[in-house]
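FORM 12-B: Structure-to-Sequence Request
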């Protein structure tokens, strides 16, 4: 999966890079430090998914999401330091086309693979949704009668 990262915090960008490194199929194709850069990057090098921060200088993630979906639509997952504290902005971004949201992975304390798991799970779900329907694994649930 080709991924664009939008975040003005170098430590957050590095945490996402490290989390993505656990899945060899994921490749970061560009990094933008604000929403305005992300719009340009999406137009020039459209990724499969954008990992979008909410709070950035120049242009925030909500407005960038709105503009990307209008000009160069692609899947956008909001990645923010604190989902609960930013819930209003998360809903605004999702109302403008973001498909999901997750906390920024916290690296440096505990198990790095565990810290990466929520973000990787969101990407796995997105890949499953975008896969051709005939190639999706079928859940083996008992029939309800």
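FORM 12-B RESPONSE
SEQUENCE OUT:
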């Amino acid at each position: 999966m080709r991924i664009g990262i939008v975040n003005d915090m170098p430590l957050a960008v590095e945490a996402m890079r490290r989390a993505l490194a656990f899945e060899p199929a994921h490749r970061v194709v560009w990094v933008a430090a604000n929403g305005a850069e992300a719009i340009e990057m999406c137009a020039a090098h459209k990724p499969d998914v954008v990992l979008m921060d909410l709070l950035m200088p120049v242009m925030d993630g909500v407005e960038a999401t709105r503009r990307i979906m209008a000009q160069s639509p692609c899947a956008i997952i909001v990645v923010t330091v604190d989902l609960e504290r930013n819930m209003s902005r998360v809903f605004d971004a999702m109302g403008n086309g973001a498909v999901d949201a997750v906390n920024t992975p916290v690296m440096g304390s505990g198990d790095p693979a565990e810290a990466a798991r929520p973000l990787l799970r969101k990407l796995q779900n997105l890949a499953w949704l975008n896969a051709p329907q005939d190639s999706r694994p079928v859940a083996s649930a008992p029939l309800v009668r």
